[in-house]
Structure formats: C-alpha cells, structure tokens
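Researcher: I'd like a structural prediction for the single chain below. Treat it as a standalone chain; there are no partners to consider.
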Amino acid sequence: MEGHVARFALLMCIMAAASATCQTCDPGNADNPWIHLREMQTGCWTSFIGEDNAEVHIFNLNYNIMDTKMFSLEMTSAKPVNLILTSPYVAFGACNIGTNVNIYVNSNSTIALHGIHHNLHKQDFPTQDEELVEWAKQKFGGVTSFTTILNLQRVSLMANNGTKPGPRDCVLQNEDAFEKFFMKIEATPLASSLKSCSPQQQNPSDETELHIINIPESASICNVSIRVDSEKKTSVFVRGPKGTTWTFLNSQHTQFGSNNDILLPAMTHRILPSLVLNNDSTKTVQREALNYFKSSTFTSYTELIPGSSMILLVLTKKEGPAVTGAIPEPVIPITTNAPHQMPLQMQLYTSPDYRSPLGPNTKVQSDKRIYAEISGHTFGDIALTIKVINCFVHSKGSCTVVKELPFIPETCSLNSCPNSTRLSFSLDQLQELTPTTWDLECSVKLCYSEKCGDGGRVKRNLQVTQPCLQSPTPPCFDFGLPGVLGIAFGGFLIGVLLIGALWFIKIKTGYPTGLDISSTANLPGCPCSRAKRQPVSTNPSPSENSSANASIGSTQSTPTSSMA
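Model: Treating it as a single chain, here is the predicted structure.
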C-alpha cells in the first residue's frame, strides 16, 4: 500500500512539474493590453501639392449603425488645405478651422457642420470612391490623400506637411489610416471580438516576447495584417482556418510560425505553412506554440473572430490608460530602415579576421583598410541573404561632403555568418579631405532564393584621422672592434704628429740670445718668462767700450806718471 502511495505522489510531482514548465491560460473578455484590432480601409497617400500650394485631402466617414455619429474637426494650421468630406450616414461635426482651409461637401450631403461660417462649399460630386478621386483630380489637379475612417470621434491635422515621398497619383488600396503621421485620429473601437489571457508566471527579464493568435475553424476566411510596434524582440505564432493569409507589415519580430500562408510585402514573397495544426482548441494551440519556439511560457494568447475580410492587428504594449485608436506624435527614427524592413546593424573591424571590432569613437587612419559586417535578424526559419548595393560617406558639419565609397565583398561561410555579409573599404580618397567625422551608409537588398526586395539602409559613425608624416631618421653607424681600434690608432698617430710639429717649431724659432730676463718681463703680452736665466756677459757693448777705455786710461796714467 505504501508503495502505491509513493508512486502516486511521484506521479503528482511529475504532473506538477510538467504544468509548471508548460504554462497555459484560459481566455476571457478582459481588455487585451497587447493586441489592438482595426479594420483595413480603402485609401491612398501621395506627394501631390496643387499649384496654389494647397494639399487636397478626402475623408470618407463610415459608422456602425449603433454608434453615435458625431465628430470634431480641428484644422487650425497655417498651411492651405482643400478638404472633401463624404459619408453615407447622417453625421454631425463641430469644426475649428483656419482661414486657409476650404471644406467641400456634396449638395445633398447628410453631414451637418457647426462652427464654420466661411469657406464651406457645396458642390455636386460623386460619392463612389474611385469616381470621387477622379472628380478631385479634375478640379484640383490631384489628390494628396484619401482616408476612410470608421467611427470617427475626432480628427486633427498637424502643422507639418501631409505629403508622402513617392508617386503623385492616388491609387486606392487597403491601408491603415493611423499610419498617416500628419493627422491624429481618435475613433470608437470596434465591437469586442477578441478574447485574451496571459499566464500568471512570466519572467519580465526575458528579452523575447511570445504572442499567440488563434482564429477558430468556425470563423470566416480573411486576410489579417499584423504590425509589430513592440521595441522588444518578438516571436509570433498565428493559427487560422485553411485559406487564411497573414501579412506582416514590418519585420521587427525575430521569428514566426503558422499553419497558414504568410506574406512579406518587403520581398513580395509568400511563405508556405511551417506546420499542420487543424485543432483550434486553446490548450492545443498554446502547447504547440511553446513546443515550436522551444519556450516554457508565453506573453499573451488571443482568440480572434474577424468581423470583416480585411482586418489589422497592431501588436504593442499599453503603458497606461489611453484612448483606443489614437496614435502618438510622430517620432523620427534614428535608423534608416523603413518600418516594414528588417532591422540591420553594421560592425567595423580593423583586420580581415573580424576579431578586432571598432568602437563608435575609435579613430582610423585614412591609409588603413577597414572591414565591415552587416547583419540582421531572421524571418522564422527562412534564410535571408543580405546584398549590398552601394555605400557612401557623409561628412558631419556645416559643409556637407558626400563621397561614394567603393567596397570589395569578403568571403564568409554560411556557418560563421549565416545572417550577415562582409565587405571591406579603402579610405584613401579621404586623405585629402578636411572633415574627420563621417557617416558610413550602405543600401542593401534582402534576398530569398532568387527574389530580392528593398532592405533599406544601414548607417554607422566613422572617425578618420590623417596619417602622421615622420621626419627621415639619420643613419646610425654601427662600429665593431676593428673600427674602434682603427679610430684609436688614428687619434694616437695624429697626436704624435702634432707634438712633433710643435717641437720642430720650438727648435727653429727659439728666443733671441741677447734678450735679458728683465727686458723680457717688461715686454707687453709676456706676463712671465720661463726661459733659463743667462749669465751676464763680460764683453761690453761697443758704446760702452769707448767711455770705459777713456776712464781706464786716465786712471792708469796717474800711477805711471807719478811713478815716473
């Protein structure tokens, strides 16, 4: 009996451990802080500006039958705007517009505008989308934007331009109106068709989020667009009935898995299902997602019943209470990648072995060669190839200098750099230029099999210094033992010759014999004579002999005479 109890306790421990390592949850109708549901609507966005410098915008207002059809319009910016309003419903609008704004409504329009006392024009124009665009082209020359807004509450146009770089022709297609940064839209959220939950035990330090989205088999087939606005690395597991298509508008997620087809607009490529999953039960889908990504927990689980054939899911995280559907002010990105493209990064190296990375502030001499590695994240299990098109350097400062930088592709095996490409640059052409701080920017393409799409641009800071010009080094003589002995003997020989020459001069040019030491001492320039003192000569000089002889003769004559 005790053995059975022990085995039962062990089995319970194993089941508890398994449930702890594989977290699941039951979805409810609570607000989902990660997934926001919107419908894709018809619209366009161009670079058109009229000859009078006025932008032309068309707002097509749609409402659900039970929603309150009241909105406010804020357009006090100084830029000139021609605004066309159309709606199949009776709607009431409060307007606050500037003097440069002209509003056009249909003569039989059901839109009632309040607070506008000027610049309101009623004209006969069609109400169908394509026909209305053609009418605006004939009247104004073109259309800057066409926006279909569902359940509008408030819309305001910003002071910045409402144009978008690209073509001038308005081609209507399915779009997300909230991506148009020049306007701020607040709308009533769609009727709740989402159920969501999150496991109780999560590790907030996890760098990667895992989100699971499940469309039941009983739902109608639809096209679902997903935009990932989360700053974290994100993995997405999506499941739906056969025929469902998931379109990822951007690629900030690192991985994804699905039993349906996935579209990547950046490469206009369709990815086939990565697994087979016909069971739509909550627990089955959650466990399949955890097993697919080899994870022990997930961030959120969402069950979706689409209300239309084209819907948009925005995956983000609320930081606090906010109005659903409102978007923040536009933020200028610090990277050069478009929102739908894969994030790229460039690392520079000093050697071809790619083992000595350069820091952001490290200076490189212009006579050196640098090596670069451009890498990015993967699309699930798909191997993408990064192809570099061209590279430029832009100087930083008041005087901008742009130079194309030729590069040489470097070999790189698939194992050492599976999601990157390597190349090298020569900085010789920067030696004669004054700027030292540059932005190195390369344009790339992302390729899968033989199909390539625009991959955006990747930028990196580069500090360049001029090489130091060194003065020529004087030759260094290396003397050995024979050389040293030769120099010593030469010095000795020169000394002997000099001493002999001085001795010879001494012998030939000695002092005069009649020179007295006293007279020598009085000679100017001769402070002291070391010559040997000569004895006094007994032979008087001729001048002295005459006087001496006379005195001697007189002296000697006296005794002679006296003696005589």
